[in-house]
Amino acid sequence: MADVVEKRLREYFKKNAFRPGDPIPKEMELAEALQVSRNVVREALSRLKMLGMIESKKKRGMILSEPDIFGGFERVLDPLILEQQTLKDLFELRLVLELGLADLIFLRKTDKDIQDLEKIVSKSTNINKTSFKVKNEIAFHGKLYEMTGNHTIMRFQTLLMPIFEYVVAEEEKQGAAYSISRITHIDLLEILKNGSAGQFKEAMRAHLSPHFERLI
Amino acid sequence: MADVVEKRLREYFKKNAFRPGDPIPKEMELAEALQVSRNVVREALSRLKMLGMIESKKKRGMILSEPDIFGGFERVLDPLILEQQTLKDLFELRLVLELGLADLIFLRKTDKDIQDLEKIVSKSTNINKTSFKVKNEIAFHGKLYEMTGNHTIMRFQTLLMPIFEYVVAEEEKQGAAYSISRITHIDLLEILKNGSAGQFKEAMRAHLSPHFERLI
Fold first, then answer.
1. How confident is the model at residue B95 (pLDDT cuts 50, 70, 90)?
2. Mind listing the pLDDT tens digit for each residue in B18-37?
3. Which domain holds residue A75?
4. B216 to chain A: which residues are within 8 Å by CB?
5. Which one of B82, B96, B108, B153 would you mutate to disrupt binding with A, by most A Cβ within 10 Å of its Cβ?
6. Integer distance in angstroms from the first to the last C-alpha of chain A?
7. Facing A47 at nearest CB: one of B14, B47, B98
8. What are phi and psi of B94, to 5 degrees?
9. Contact present, B168 and B160 (Cβ < 8 Å)
10. CATH code (residue A46)
C-alpha cells in the first residue's frame, strides 16, 4: 500500500509542478486527496524524506526540496547484501568512469591541480607499507576526479570506491595475483603536463591493465 | 526519529551479518531491541522496503533481500526538482560513460552484436523525421551499452538518458545550435568491425564533439 501511495505522491507533486521550496499540503489533506489513511500517507512521506525530496521546516510545515541524488544508492551499497554479479558490475563501472574522464580533465585542469598531483606523487616514492600505498593510490585517483570539476561524478566515485576495494581484496583472498602496471602515476602526471587527452586515455588503459587482465 | 532508527536498523542487520534470504525479527522485537516505538520501526522498515532491502513474504514474515541498486536514484531523477548544476553534472556523467565504454565493448563484442548494429544503422539512412532520428540514436548507443554485458551499467544509462535529453532540449530552447558530428554511426560501426579500442575512443570523442563544444 505504501508503495502505491509513495508513487502517487511523487506523481501528484509532478502533475502540480511543485518545485523545491514549495510548501506541500498537510498530511491530512494529502490523505483526503489520495483517499487513503493518514498512516499510509505518513509512511510514504517518510520514504520521500529519506530521499531528501521532502523536508520538515519549523513553522512552515513540509516543503518539497532538492533530493540527495545518491542518497538511496549510498544506503544499499553494502557488499554483504549485494550479489556477486552486481559487485563485479560496479567494479567495471568504476573502470569505465576512470577511462572516460580524460576529456573533462584536459578541458578543466589548472596549474594548481598539477601542483597537487606533484605533491601526491612525490610522497609516494618512499612508501613501502601497503596501507600507505593504498591511501596514496586513492589520493591520486581521487584528485583526477576532482579535476573534472563535476561534484556528482566525484560523489559517485567516492561511493563506488569501497566496493571496488572489496572486490580487489576478495579476489586477492582467492589467490588472484595482480601484475604491476607498466604505466605509473609519474607517467600519467607527465602526460597531464605535456601530453594530450588521447595519450592520457591510452596511458590510463595501460595503468589499469592489471584490472582488465582479470575481466572476461 | 525515523532517520535515526532507519540507520540503526541498517547497522543492526550489518552487525548481525544478515544476508539476503535471512528472516528478520518481527516489528515488535525490533522495537524492543532498539528501544523505540513500533510506529517508528514500521516507518523505518517501510523505507528499507522501498529500497528493496526488505521484503514481506507470505507465511515467512519479513526477510532481508538484495536491494534494487538504483531504486532510490530512479525515484529522484526528475528534472523539475533537480538543480541546474546537478542536471549538467549528470549530462557530463553520461558523456564520461560513453567515452569509457570502449575497452569493455572490444573485450566482449560478438558477431551477433555487429549484425544488430548493422540493422540499426541501415534503418537510419532513410530517416528524416526528428523523432525517428532520436529513436535511432537511442537504439545505436543503447546497443553499445548492451555490448558491455554489464547490466548495472545498462540500467544506469537507461536512467540517465531522459536527463541527458532534457538538458539537450533545454539548451536548444535557449538557442544553442548543435553542430553535426563529422563521425557518424557508420564510421563507429566500421571501427567496431575492423579497428581497435583506441581508434574507437578517438572516433567516439569526435562523434560526441557537438556536446563537448558547449562544455566549459
1. very high
2. 999 999 999 999 999 999 99
3. 71-212
4. 107
5. B96
6. 43
7. B47
8. -70, -40
9. no
10. 1.10.10.10
What is the structure's pLDDT at A213? Answer: 87
* C-alpha distance from A212 to closest chain B C-alpha (Å): 9
Q: What's the CATH code of the domain at B101?
A: 1.20.120.530
CA distance A131 to chain B (A): 25
Whether B131 and B189 map to the same domain: the answer is yes
Instruction: State how far the alpha carbon of B169 is from the alpha carbons of A144, B89, B177, B212, in Å.
Output: 30, 16, 11, 16
Q: State whether A52 and A76 are in the same domain.
A: no
**Alpha-carbon distances of B155 from A69, B13, B110, B122, rounded to whole Å:** 16, 27, 21, 26
| pLDDT (mean) for A26-53 | 94
Distances (CA, A) of A203 to A23, A93, A181, B211: 52, 19, 10, 24
According to the model, what pLDDT value does residue B172 have?
86
Contacts of B69 in chain A (CB under 8 A): 73, 76-77, 82, 86, 90
> How far away is chain B from the Cα of A76, in angstroms, using its nearest Cα?
6
Q: Say whether both A31 and A104 belong to one domain.
A: no
CA torsion sign for A4, A7, A10, A11 is negative
Whether B69 contacts A82, CB under 8 Å: yes
Taking alpha carbons only, the member of B2, B30, B37, B36 closest to residue B16 is B30
Of B104, B198, B212, the CB nearest to A96: B104
Give pLDDT tens digits for B147-162. Answer: 999 999 999 999 999 9
Closest chain A residue to the Cα of B51, Cα to Cα: A72
User: Is the CB of B103 less than 8 angstroms away from the CB of A83?
Assistant: no
Number of domains in chain A: 2
Shared domain for A7 and A33, answered yes or no, is yes
Identify the pLDDT of residue A127. Answer: 64
Per-residue pLDDT for A130 more than 90?
no
Mean predicted confidence (pLDDT) in A10-39: 93
